[in-house]
Amino acid sequence: MPLRHKSAQKRARQTVKITDRNKNIKALIKGSIKKITAITEKTAADAEFKKTTRVLDRAAAKGIIHKKKAAHVKSKLAKHVNKAK
Which domain holds residue 41? Predict the structure, then answer.
């Protein structure tokens, strides 16, 4: 059934935009996590960890992911970075 109300039509347009933006940010997070786990050098892992931390914090602040999930992922990645040589 087509959307008849203007507000419902606008809401549908907004939902599409927001969903695409959230998918892109989540893909960015997943890609940066994979980069860190693939890196074995300490200096390169530290640099990538800082970038990923920023992305996670931004996503948590905007409500794309939960703030505790961001903390969980950062903790897990920090363990990996500290094990790197």
Answer: 6-83
| 1 found inside a domain | no
Amino acid at site 11 = R
Comparing CA positions, the residue from 13, 29, 14, 35 lying closest to residue 80 is 35
* CATH at 74: 1.20.58.110
Does 38 reside within a domain?
Answer: yes
Count structural domains, the chain.
1
Q: Contacts from 18-27 at CB under 8 Å and sequence distance 24+? A: 22/64, 25/55, 25/58, 25/59, 25/64, 26/59, 26/64, 26/65
Digit-by-digit pLDDT tens for the chain (85 residues) are 578 899 999 999 999 999 999 999 999 999 999 999 999 899 999 999 999 999 999 999 999 999 999 999 999 999 999 998 7
Q: What is the pTM of this model?
A: 0.83
